[in-house]
Specification:
The chain is mostly helical and 213 residues long. 71% of the residues lie in helices and 4% in strands. The chain has helices at 2-31, 34-53, 58-86, 110-133, 159-185, 189-210; strands at residues 97-98, 102-103, 137-138, 147-148. It has a two-stranded antiparallel sheet with strand order 1-2. Strand 3 (137-138) and strand 4 (147-148) form a beta hairpin. Helix 5 (159-185) runs antiparallel to helix 6. The longest helix has 30 residues, at 2-31.
Length: 213
């Protein structure tokens, strides 16, 4: 009975990983930002392979997720400048975006912009958190559903560093959940979906990591 429960929880966690990644892809597509779309697609394929197939080594996915985080991070400053310029151009026909697919509507208050930027930065950090956590999974020979093991690099003197990184990822989950709740209160569905998707994805990765094989 316990084994059946663990297997069901593992399958659910894997599905949440893939579904959350798909939600983030949708947000990136709406942003029409090529870098954000590329990073989100890398994340989606990484989660699909990592959770369901196990064809590519987690090390490669980790490197690609770091690259995705750098791509998304590079859009933050440029997007913020775009928003600042658009605030003085009432005739502008396009809607500026910020971060990993975060849309900013014209007439947004400074408080709204702060929330948008906070979610954009947190979503960027989520890529690095996923890159770390994905190293905590090992695939069985021949692929298949993900099984879990200890983090590569958690042995010896790196154990403390690994614990700190795990703790930082958990703090990020809480932060994203708080930002999602704030976005819901402000009825900003797109931002809430992005923050919630990232939080659910990291939480699911933790769950899959601690479940027994």
């Amino acid at each position: 009975m316990r084994d059946d429960w663990c297997m069901a929880a593992l399958i659910a966690a894997n599905l949440v990983m893939v579904g959350s990644a798909g939600l983030c892809v949708g947000g990136a597509v709406r942003s029409r930002n090529p870098l954000a779309v590329s990073a989100a697609l890398v994340m989606f394929v990484a989660m699909a392979d990592h959770a369901l197939l196990g064809v590519v080594s987690p090390v490669w996915w980790s490197l690609l997720l770091v690259a995705g985080g750098l791509m998304v991070g590079s859009t933050l400053r440029a997007s913020a400048l775009s928003f600042a310029e658009s605030s003085t151009e009432s005739s502008r026909s396009t809607t500026p975006t910020l971060g990993n697919g975060c849309a900013v509507v014209r007439g947004t208050t400074s408080s709204d912009l702060a929330l948008t930027r906070a979610i954009g930065v947190s979503a960027t950090l989520a890529y690095f958190a996923m890159a770390w956590l994905i190293l905590g999974h090992q695939h069985p020979a021949g692929g298949g559903v993900t099984s879990t093991a200890t983090h590569a690099g958690h042995g010896g003197g790196a154990h403390l560093v690994g614990m700190l990184l795990d703790g930082a990822a958990l703090v990020l989950v809480v932060l994203l959940a708080v930002l999602m709740a704030r976005a819901v209160r402000q009825k900003r569905t797109a931002l809430a979906s992005e923050a919630g998707g990232m939080a659910a994805m990291i939480a699911a990765m933790f769950l899959a990591m601690i479940l027994p094989n």
